[in-house]
Specification:
The chain is of the alpha/beta class. It has 2 domains: 218 residues, Rossmann fold, CATH 3.40.50; 89 residues, Rossmann fold, CATH 3.40.50. Helices cover 48% and strands 15% of the residues. The chain contains 14 helices and 10 strands. It has a 6-stranded mixed β-sheet, sandwiched between helices. A 4-stranded parallel β-sheet has the order 5-4-3-6. Helix 5 links the parallel strand 3 and strand 4. Helix 1 packs across helix 8, helix 5 runs parallel beside helix 6 and helix 8 crosses helix 9. It is globular, with a radius of gyration of 18 Å.
């Protein structure tokens, strides 16, 4: 039975067929170091190895491949603090679609350089709220909006990750997924709950980028006045009704962790597992560690490492700031 906010499984299966020759099928690997630390098998879904360094091309390809020829000719506009920008730019180049991306002026240089390098026109605005407003203005002027999360087609593309996880590990019992605007977890939770209803999906945010947790607590959509977390790719100031409903219905809970703990686990993943990921990915490890005492024999824990676009200067700055 489908729930409010749930993306139908056939839509996700259709997305998998549509994008399968366009994206990587990323590995799911067991971590010995983390399994010893947790006392149960812990698996890492290496989505930071996806094209452009994050999960985002899955949804962007599904959305943009679904456009009619006339819509493709109009070009697309997107708003992003980083990973969605790169994905839309990359997909636009692959499909011959003109792309414009509105980005905050505070966006790290590596994200700006990559987005321009993939072929997009970048428009810089004072903050993410202004970037959304400009993208909406350009949509109203004729461009097609490729929203970073508020779109079932986009979320269905992200949901293909859930199908891959259960294909590779049918025994998966707990899956930890980070939340920005909520499109990723809406897609994954829809896929997982359709195929294996007894599996648990847990959402993760960081303090200062926790619009979903605040909205759930309030029972209504809450807009953050500013994004203060270092996890910039989780920096949606407000989730959508679609993603809010999906998380409320399908997700077992949303954990909010602090930046310092996130950086500590980012360093652990680098030094012990040899994976360099973003704070938006490392935060799922910080959250899962809170639940370590809840896991029991037979559980199989999956951590989605959703992105790896980290600038060296940022990494050094975080270590200095948080004493890691």
């Amino acid at each position: 039975m489908y729930h409010v906010g749930m993306i139908p499984l056939p839509l996700i299966a259709q997305a998998r067929l549509r994008i399968r020759d366009r994206v990587h099928r990323t590995p799911l690997v067991r971590s010995h170091a983390l399994s010893e630390r947790f006392g149960v098998p812990v698996w890492l879904k290496l989505e930071f190895l996806q094209k452009t360094g994050s999960f985002k091309p899955r949804g962007a390809f599904n959305k943009m491949l679904s456009l009619s020829p006339s819509d493709r000719a109009r070009g697309v506009v997107a708003v992003s603090g980083g990973n969605h920008a790169q994905a839309v730019a990359f997909v636009g180049t692959q499909l011959g679609i003109a792309t414009t991306v509105c980005m905050p002026e505070t966006t790290p240089r590596n994200y700006l350089d990559a987005t321009r390098g993939y072929g997009a026109e970048v428009v810089l605005l004072p903050d993410i709220r202004s970037a959304f407003a400009e993208a909406e203005r350009r949509r109203d002027a004729g461009r097609v909006m490729v929203h970073p999360f508020d779109d079932p087609l986009l979320a269905a593309g992200q949901g293909t990750i859930g199908l891959e996880i259960l294909n590779d590990l049918p025994e998966a019992s707990h899956i930890y997924v980070s939340i920005g605007g909520g499109g990723l977890i809406a897609g994954i939770a829809s896929a997982v709950k359709a195929v294996k209803p007894e599996a648990t999906v847990v959402g993760v945010e960081t303090h200062g980028a926790d619009a979903m947790a605040k909205s759930l607590a309030a029972g209504e959509l809450v807009e953050l006045p500013a994004i203060t977390s270092i996890a910039r790719t989780l920096g949606a100031p407000k989730v959508s009704r679609f993603t809010f409903d999906a998380v409320k219905e399908l997700v077992s809970g949303v954990e909010v962790v602090d930046d310092a703990t996130t950086v500590a686990e980012l360093v652990f993943l680098l030094e012990r597992c040899k994976y360099l990921v973003e704070p938006s990915a490392a935060c799922v490890l910080a959250a899962a560690l809170r639940h370590r005492d809840r896991f029991k024999a037979g559980d199989q824990v999956v951590l989605l490492l959703c992105g790896g676009n980290v600038a060296l200067d940022d990494l050094c700055g975080w270590r200095q700031r948080f004493g890691q």
